[in-house]
Every structure is written in structure tokens, then in C-alpha cells.
């Protein structure tokens, strides 16, 4: 009898202990969740090669993709203009860049490598500002065809090297992610030039609205020309050089609020290209 009672007590004690452990232990521990993988930035959108594998040429975005427009600015300086800069000529335009920032206007700056070397701090600041993107306007700003506004000409066998030298200059001054877009100096190109740049893997970016600000003295005329020409998807070409385009900043202060009043949204060239190839 005593032995049976002791067994009952022991079994009850064991049951109580097991119940207590179960209550205090809680659910079984799970292994920690793996850390999320860092986001991998996608490559900038580009266009597929043109006929016969030629460098593709982009002029404007889709007309039916809404009222968007891209303001682009050429930061021009030729390879042989160093003495003029040393003598005090200004090929930069910090006030224009400041106005774009104040107005919160995204823009694409097509920069020559020589300009970046002359103004490394400005080139780096533009390149690191998420409001802007830096694209290639050649190193030398020499023409890629004959008879292009009196510019010296780059031989075909040197064209690719001139473009790649500009990218080297951007990296040297600290521009982190220059875009794979190229604008021909003067907008002049032909089949030979497109063939020469095919191995560089760039998309050539032209425009459908000429701002007419080069050497202009009437800011209102520049603004009117832009406003009269803009359509959905337009690419506007203007300049970022005080000496050659002194009225551009004043014109932009008229262009931006008027286009916004008309319902336009400002975007970088990359967004228009993304929309053109279905990535927008």
C-alpha cells in the first residue's frame, strides 16, 4: 500500500515538473531569419543597337507617355581652350546649376572631359547630386563629322578613344556614375561616327527642341523658343557655359514655371529612355 502510494506521488510529481518546464520554456526557438540581401542597382536604361549594329540614336521620349520633358545642358569646353580659361573666360555656370537646384528641376548635364578637368569641384558636385545625371559630350568637343560649326575634327580611328577619355576624366575628378549616354559635339554625326562608337556601348542622345541659347542675348526669346517647341517627351538642348550662353539661367527661370503651369513634369534623359524601351 505504502509502495503504491509512493509510486502515485512520484508519477504526479514528475507530471507536475514536466508541465512546469513546458510552461516556462515557451515555443521552440527558431533560427534567426537571414539578413535581406542588399539591393543591386539596375543598369541605366539604354537603347538597343540600331540597324547593322550601329550606335542607337535617341531624340525624344514617347509622345503618349504623359506630359514629361527633359532639360539637358551641354557643358562645353574644347581641348584647346585652356589658355582662354586661364585668362579669365568662364566656361562654367554655377548660377544656372544653383537655379535648377532651387527650382528642384531634374536635369541631364552633357559634360566634356576637358570641362570636368577645368572645373573638378563643380563636376563632382553635379555628379553626386541626385537631382542631376552626368553624360558624355566627348573629351575634346571636337566634331565627329566634317563641316560642323567650324569645330576641329576627330579622325574616325580616334572617336572611341575621345569618348572613353571623357569617362576617364569624370572618374578622375570623382563623378561616381556617369551615364552611358553620348551627345555629339554640335549634334553632328554620320554613319561613320555611329560605326566608330558602337564598341563604346553608348546611346547617342540628340534632341527635338533647340533652345537657341548659344550666344543669345535675349532670355525672353530663348524661353519663347523652348516653350513653343516642347511636346510630351521632348528633349530640350541648352548650355551650361557663362561665356557662350549668358542668358540661359534667366530663360530657365521663365521656362520652368510656365511648363509646370501647363502640367509638365521634368525628368532626366534616363527616364525618357527607360519609357522608350519599356522600362519606364
From TrEMBL:
<dbReference type="InterPro" id="IPR011330">
    <property type="entry name" value="Glyco_hydro/deAcase_b/a-brl"/>
</dbReference>
<dbReference type="InterPro" id="IPR002509">
    <property type="entry name" value="NODB_dom"/>
</dbReference>
<feature type="region of interest" description="Disordered">
    <location>
        <begin position="25"/>
        <end position="46"/>
    </location>
</feature>
<dbReference type="Pfam" id="PF01522">
    <property type="entry name" value="Polysacc_deac_1"/>
</dbReference>
<feature type="signal peptide">
    <location>
        <begin position="1"/>
        <end position="25"/>
    </location>
</feature>
<feature type="compositionally biased region" description="Pro residues">
    <location>
        <begin position="29"/>
        <end position="44"/>
    </location>
</feature>
<feature type="domain" description="NodB homology">
    <location>
        <begin position="67"/>
        <end position="267"/>
    </location>
</feature>
<protein>
    <submittedName>
        <fullName>Polysaccharide deacetylase family protein</fullName>
    </submittedName>
</protein>
<dbReference type="InterPro" id="IPR050248">
    <property type="entry name" value="Polysacc_deacetylase_ArnD"/>
</dbReference>
<keyword id="KW-0732">Signal</keyword>
